[in-house]
Specification:
Layout: E1 9-13, H1 18-27, E2 33-37, H2 40-48, E3 54-58, H3 66-75, E4 79-84, H4 89-98, E5 102-105, H5 110-121, E6 125-131, H6 133-143, E7 149-155, H7 162-171, H8 177-185, H9 191-198, H10 212-224, H11 227-238, E8 243-246, E9 253-258, E10 263-265, H12 267-271, E11 282-288, H13 295-303, E12 306-309, H14 314-322, H15 327-333, E13 337-341, H16 356-367, E14 374-378, H17 384-392, E15 413-417, E16 420-422, E17 426-428, H18 430-443
Parallel strand pairs: 1-2, 1-3, 3-4, 4-5, 6-7, 6-12, 7-8, 12-13, 13-14, 14-15
Antiparallel strand pairs: 9-10, 9-11, 16-17
């Protein structure tokens, strides 16, 4: 994980010694010192002695008074991480507003726990990316080059086309395709291993068009009991630089209503309008049944310094994540800056004829409030040959014809930047995106003590 040794004194306040012993083993290579206590009085006595860098408090320590204990620790100027079962978003928000540095959701995964712990101890910038598909893959490829940052990819799980769709129907499990892309994007494994994970069979009875990485995730899901645990295990194998989280553990179906009243079922049919007029606009997106958000995803969003929405398909990629229960509430309540990265080109059946202002308007609508801080849009300098190729497919650049129109939709700062590259296709450029995100990080001053919460109060 390329973690430099950092000697720290950490108190684990937990009625049971099991976690403390396990954490001590994990931290042995870094020479951090673990002090275990099972009583509040003993915890306070240790803190009064000074020299403590962090306190990790299990929610069972104080019989329902955990947050009161948190307040006492924070008043002594020591950082706190909470160890908790699945908490609703409202309780997570309360913990973070009190000043908790991170809420780690049980059951713990060793690599993710270490990454979260070191992010707190080393004051790393925490960047959360939401979406799916090739846009999220492109973004992560660049972001993993940023220094002193913890990346978390929160991935849409609505894909029902191609290899992922066949797996979903055959095995009744969450589609693996988008999480596989995030895993490979963050991988530190040899190139050959990443090529193998991306390999797609071109023939073979039952194998044709399946992706090997998808099949490996299916096998791992059966071994580990869930797609979430499969993703964690594949992350270990690939040595990923960051954390990849399925946005939900519940199988669902993405739904869309068109302007003519017609309802379309399934992401693939929404994404590929083979049986309808692609110029008819989408008026509403939802999921059936409404899935609950992965609590780890909620915690990561609330802890983030920077929350990136996009790039990716507007409705089937980004808006789909905002229709998962708890996600938009966490985004709007988070202290971190929220950035929407707009698409480069329109897409027939999804965004035909939509301008950049239309894209932003949809994001704000599904967030439920104007929570954006920045909108990042490409400067649109594409060659005539590229524009002609895209026009033949009914696509055109996402235009920003009148920037002043954004003022009526969002207070966000508009950033028009060179973030695209043109080869055979026009695509967002990984390193240019990383450069812009790096500049945003350099502007950040939202660590606890100065973070502005939606209420306008200062988080203390």
């Amino acid at each position: 994980m390329n973690l430099e040794p950092h000697k720290a004194r950490i108190i684990v306040a937990d009625p049971r010694p099991t976690f403390s012993h396990g954490l001590a083993s994990l931290l042995a290579p870094y020479e951090d010192q673990i002090i275990w206590t099972k009583q509040v009085a003993a915890l306070m006595q240790q803190l009064d002695g000074g020299g403590i860098d962090l306190v990790m408090i299990d929610e069972t320590l104080a019989d329902g008074q955990t947050l009161a204990v948190v307040d006492q620790v924070l008043q002594r100027g020591v950082r706190v991480m909470l160890l908790a079962e699945s908490w609703p978003v409202e309780r997570l928000v309360d913990a973070y507003r009190r000043g908790v540095s991170y809420v780690v959701i049980k059951p713990f995964h060793p690599r993710e726990l270490l990454l979260s712990l070191h992010a707190v101890l080393r004051n790393q910038r925490r960047i959360v990316c939401l979406g799916g598909g090739s846009g999220l893959y492109t973004l992560l490829l660049g972001l993993k080059t940023l220094p002193n940052a913890l990346l978390t990819s929160i991935v849409s799980m609505s894909d029902d086309g191609g290899s992922s769709g066949r797996i979903r129907e055959s095995f009744g499990i969450l589609p693996p395709g988008d999480v596989r892309r995030s895993l490979v994007a963050l991988s530190t494994a040899p190139d050959l291993m990443n090529e193998l994970i991306h390999y797609r069979f071109t023939d073979g009875d039952g194998l044709k068009d399946h992706n090997l990485g998808n099949l490996l995730l299916v096998a791992m899901a059966h071994l580990k009991g869930s797609m979430a645990e499969a993703v964690r295990s594949m992350g270990d194998i690939l040595g990923i630089q960051g954390i990849v989280l399925p946005i939900t553990s519940r199988l669902n179906r993405l739904m869309a209503q068109l302007a003519d009243g017609r309802v379309i079922e399934g992401e693939h049919r929404i994404d590929v309008p083979s049986d309808r007029d692609p110029s008819i606009r989408i008026t509403r997106i939802w999921q059936d049944p409404e899935p609950e958000a992965n609590p780890n995803a909620l915690s990561a969003i609330l802890a983030a310094d920077l929350i990136l929405l996009g790039p990716g398909d507007l409705f089937t990629g980004i808006v789909a994540t905002l229709t998962v229960k708890g996600i938009r509430d966490a985004i709007c309540a988070a202290a971190g800056r929220k950035v929407y990265i707009c698409n480069l080109m329109t897409k027939p059946g999804e965004t035909s004829g939509l301008t950049a202002v239309d894209h932003v308007q949809e994001i704000v609508r599904y967030l439920g409030q104007d929570a954006l801080h920045e909108v990042l849009i490409a400067n649109g300098h594409f060659s005539p040959a590229a524009l002609e190729r895209y026009a033949r497919n009914g696509q055109m650049p996402v235009r920003l014809e009148d920037p002043s129109q954004l003022a009526g939709i969002t207070k966000a700062r508009l950033l028009v930047r060179d973030i695209a590259s043109e080869h055979e296709l026009v695509r967002h450029d990984s390193m240019k995106l990383a450069g812009e995100v790096g500049r945003l990080i350099s502007e950040l001053n939202i660590r606890k003590g100065v973070a502005k919460w939606p209420s306008g109060q200062v988080a203390e």
